[in-house]
Amino acid sequence: MDKSLILNKIKEYYSFKSNTEFASFLGITPQVLSNWKSRNTFDVELIYTKCLVFNSEWLLTGEEPMLKNPKKSDRTENVISELKYEKKDLLENCTVNEQKEGIPLIPIEAMAGYGGGEMQIMEFESERFVVPTFKGADFLIQVKGSSMYPKYNSGDIVACKKLQLNDLFFQWNKVYVLDTEQGALIKRIDIASDDDHIMIVSDNEKYRPFQLHKSKINAISIVMGVIRLE
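^ Helix-turn-helix domain-containing protein, sequence as received from the core. Prediction below:
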């Protein structure tokens, strides 16, 4: 079994741009990651602990399915193990809800329809979470990539509140989730050169800011807070 391939698939799943970023997420040095690949091995227990979405059988043998669907009895344990709030008391108050109450966790791709109020979230959601601090949030999505680092890490989960495009007032320098023709973006918004555009800004200095015409925004939500990975 090619364990380097498994490592590459995990890296691709979380949209890490470099091995250094991937190693940092795992809590190891880039040299350790390089040694794993050259020796066709890795620490299964570490990977399984850090990446709870992956099927243990796939990690061990490479046999599909790659992702697992946790049993209902395991859900709360998985959430507590995988997620860490910026404030400790938030973690203690976070519970998984089976009665379709609370905040739905959706794929970022689903924000296109759900953020505009045109899609039933039932098609996408896997679980709902009761998080008292994020009262008023409409959905949760997972951050992918490093463009908003260090504010958000790839794998962090942000709570979002939907906004109406026809009555939109931007709070400059706040973080929003936007559905655009090029896909969903989690970015900081700032004033642009004219009233018809907004400036899209990444916290990671490696990503250059750019202007976006307001007509290119299909749906928009404001980020209310973050659930940070351990």
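The longest strand covers residues 219-229.
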